[in-house]
Amino acid sequence: MPSQPTQQVFDSLERFRIEIPSWGFANTGTRFGKFLQSGAASTIEEKFSDAGQVHALTGICPTIALHVLWDFEDGLRSVANVAALAGRYGVRPGSINPNLFQDQIYKYGSFANPDPAVRDQALKHSADSIAIARDLRSRDISFWFTDGSNYPGTANIRQRKRLFDECLQATHARLAPEQRMLIEYKPFEPAFYHTDIADWGMALLLARAAGPQAKVLVDTGHHYASQNIEQIVAWLLAENMLGGFHFNDRRYADDDLTLGSIDPYQVFRIFHEILFFEWEEGQRADIAYMIDQSHNLKGKIEAMIQTVTMAQNLFAKAALVDYEQLVPAQKACDLVRAESLLQDAFATDVRPAVREWRASKGLPEDPLKAFRQSGYLDRISLERSARNLSSASSYA
Ligand code: RM4
Ligand code: MN
Ligand code: MN
Questions:
Q1: How would you list the strands of the sheet with 140-143, edge to edge?
Q2: Which ligand has the minimum distance to the alpha carbon of residue 247?
Q3: What is the CA(168)–ligand 3 centre distance, in A?
Q4: Whole-model pTM above 0.85?
C-alpha cells in the first residue's frame, strides 16, 4: 500500500490525461524559415504513428488533436481513413480544429469579414468541421480566429463583434447535443492593431451569446506578459465556462515553448486553482487538457514526451496541496502559512511516485529514455528523410 502522499500522487495520475497535437510532429518553423528534421511527420498516418509512440510510452495521451486543413486532405471524405488510423496506432481523434485563417479569402478575416460571401465560406468550413467531429465521435471543436486589423480606423470593431455573435450562434446551432465548441482568444498576432477575440472576457461574452455548449479555451501563451493566468482560470471555473487548455510556455509572446521550461510554478498554480475548485465543489471540472506546441529545434517526439511528463509532474505536485490546512489559513489571513502550503507542494519531488505509478501500469519508468532506446527515431528518420528534405512548403 503506497504511503499517503504517494497515494495522492497515484490518484491524480489515474485521472490526468493530456491531448497532443498532430501539428507538433510536423516540420514547422518561424516566419524566418524552417529547420527540417528528417524524422518529421508529413502525412496523417505518420502523425498518428508518432502520437501512438508518445501514448505507448507515457500512457496518458490517448487522443490526438487534428487540424481540418492539414489533416483531412479530402475533408469529410477523409474521415474513414482517419478512423482506421486511430485503430491501427492506438490513439483516438481528439479535438477538431477548423482552419479559418490560411485560405487567401481570409485576408480580411473570416467570421468578421465584411464580405458576406467570405463569412458564408467560413460558416461552411465550420459546419464541415462539426460534421467531421461528429463522424469521428470527437466532442470538442476548437475555434481560433486570426480576425482583426493592423491599423487604426480600418475596421468597424463593433460591427465585427456583431458578426462574430451571428456566426458563432449559427455555428453553435449545428452542434450535436454532446458536442462542445471551444473559443480561443489571443491578444495579437497575426493582427497587430486589434484582434476581434483578444482576451478571455471577449471570448466569454461571445461564448455565452453563442449558446450553452460554447466554452472558453485558455492557451497559456495567449496573454500579455505578467498577466495572472490562474486568476482567469479561477474566474472561468466559477462561471462554469472553462472548456479547455492549450498548454505551452513562453518568455516573450506566443513562443510555443515546452511547457514548464520557463515558469513551471505558473502551470502548478493553474492546476492548483482547478484542483482546489474541484475539492471545494466536490466534483470534477470538465476540462480538455491539450498541448499546443510545435517544436522547430528540439526533436519533435522527444519534446512531446518531455512536455507530457512535465505536465504530469506538475499536476501531481498540485494535488499535494493540503486544502484542509489551506482553507483555515486563508480565512485567518495567515499569509505565510497559506503560501507555504503551495510552496511545500511545489517543492515536493513527485518523480519517484510517478515512476512507481508507471511501473504499476506496465509503462517504462523513464519514457524519454525508453524512446531513445527504442530505435523508433532512427527508423522513421530513414524512412521519411528523402521526402522531408525535398518538400517543406506548408506550415504543418
Ligand atoms: C495559434 C493558436 C491556435 C493554433 C495555431 C497554429 O496561435 O494557438 O490554437 O492552432 O496557433
Ligand atoms: Mn492554441
Ligand atoms: Mn498560439
A1: 20-21, 63-67, 92-97, 140-143, 180-184, 214-219, 242-247, 288-291
A2: 2
A3: 20
A4: yes
